[in-house]
């Protein structure tokens, strides 16, 4: 009900095709004979269904036309198109298809006189004197008397036709809308009528479908298609009106659409729906309407709902790679639908699967090519050519890693294997994890000078110091790419702005002259890195006095580099241009852009190219910046209860006393010790995309003396725990073990 009112122009003519089925010999369900949407080349209407008032086709007629339960439909012999004629004094919106009314008139003129529809008189606009207060008083009377007839009659009359809808819910039934700020609808009245309907008897609800159960999905699908095929101008209005909904109602719309898609994909009772071949447009229509809601959500700061609320977990169970390959082959073409055209409905876990499989396929292709090259040169194949083999010394970790990655640039898309010189550890995953952790820790150390740590925001940002060689920034980008490529989570503290820049653009441009890593930045982005400076700029923007006299600033900034203060003009002649009340917005924008884009361009460009040299894939176009961060770093939110539920045991049972002691101790640890435990056993203190269950954490019984410390095999995410006799002893040994855990010997 309320969804119908939120269509951009409920007062304007809608063209709806309502075709009755032709007689058939077999007993074919009417659901298979649902009408297509009117196209630009649609023929003339054979006649007009009349509403109760004889003036205009009714909304109930529209519902009856598409209802799969209409019994009389089987006896009709020819299809009929339902047309809602124009309404006087109401602003006309663009039709669903261009020039559809003109083409209908042409077609009618060309048809025989018998086929021409009679000319109807101008409809009389109804008057609706009832107010929100009147309606609520009627509802209270009904609740006390138990007789719902008055309320039922209100619903029947109000939803009988589009003019009645406008009379009831438009602030001025004769006024046209022309602003994105005001839809002209009395939202308070709409919400009151909608909320009341949810608590009415079934016979009242039956005439006003809520679209929350499958029996009304045929009607719902047609409504969604009408919205999805509106012209772009109407979509523009809709988006801006959607963003003004309350959070509760906005979320209800999203959840109902997601449920619609899920039940169409995996129906509990398939017989309730038409065959998928007959309604292939259902899901694309719903996805398009979801896209409008997603756009509206992104226009609001903060968003009405988290972006994760658009995820449809049902899609985790479909053939994601088929969707991905369809999208790669057909793009955003309307000829073939793919959920990848609407990536906001795909969860980050599902996107990770797509990226992993795409990466695996690239790895296989690179490895196969290496084998073919060896064989073609009549050389004996060596299995090492299938991997990116890194041999590094702990004492020269950064330089050795940089040299190895530079020499083996062609092998970056092979499976990574790490060997520490002088150590006999076999890399089953643990050594690779440790290499990442140690390298990241060293590169991001303040003494190294590549990144600046901001204590207020607890994150790193690129140093703006100029240097002759930016290869180490490229190394960091390669590390991040390798981490995503090899499903390793890194303990990196970059602000969200970094990942936005990393996807600008998501694919390396073919023209090397096109700048990369440049994105639109705001004071909000700066606040995530330098909150004090961002606060100062915000005060400048909101200052009510004379900015020029009070702040005495120019379009010039100063930065310290190796003890020397250097000045930079934000625009030509900036040192001579004062910041005033009139140009302060420009000053703040240029200052923010300088700090986050221009001053670190070479550093970030090297970082960008390093990352994309490994992760060059169309799959990156599916990701939001926040999702890239989760893929790279994992989630910092630990749920040790979830880890407890998913833990496997070898030699122990979860009811054993030692295991009970262990979880009592771990669940009582502060966050820093819980992170150390996770780092000790898995090589990372972050949670992977799939949650704790994806760690495959295992506790094994170590049949050694209880005087020994616990041992971890990070390559298997395995903790070997001696059978300690007391909780105190277990806690003491565990803390010692997890606090002194760097280095590998034989495992």
From TrEMBL:
The active site is at 715 (glycyl thioester intermediate). InterPro entries: E3A/B/C-like, HECT_dom, Hect_E3_ubiquitin_ligase. SMART domains: HECTc. It catalyses: S-ubiquitinyl-[E2 ubiquitin-conjugating enzyme]-L-cysteine + [acceptor protein]-L-lysine = [E2 ubiquitin-conjugating enzyme]-L-cysteine + N(6)-ubiquitinyl-[acceptor protein]-L-lysine. One of its GO terms (biological process) is protein polyubiquitination. E3 ubiquitin-protein ligase which accepts ubiquitin from an E2 ubiquitin-conjugating enzyme in the form of a thioester and then directly transfers the ubiquitin to targeted substrates. The keyword Phosphoprotein applies. Residues 21-34 have a biased composition (Basic and acidic residues). This is Probable E3 ubiquitin-protein ligase HECTD2. The keyword Transferase applies. One of its GO terms (molecular function) is ubiquitin protein ligase activity. Residues 408-747 form the HECT domain. Pfam families: HECT. Its EC number is 2.3.2.26. It comes from Pan troglodytes (Chimpanzee). CDD domains: HECTc. Keywords: Phosphoprotein, Transferase, Ubl conjugation pathway. Pathway: Protein modification; protein ubiquitination. Residues 7-20 have a biased composition (Low complexity). PANTHER family: HECT-TYPE E3 UBIQUITIN TRANSFERASE (PTHR45700:SF9), UBIQUITIN-PROTEIN LIGASE E3C (PTHR45700). Residues 1-46 are annotated as: Disordered. It comes from the Eukaryota. SUPFAM superfamilies: Hect, E3 ligase catalytic domain.
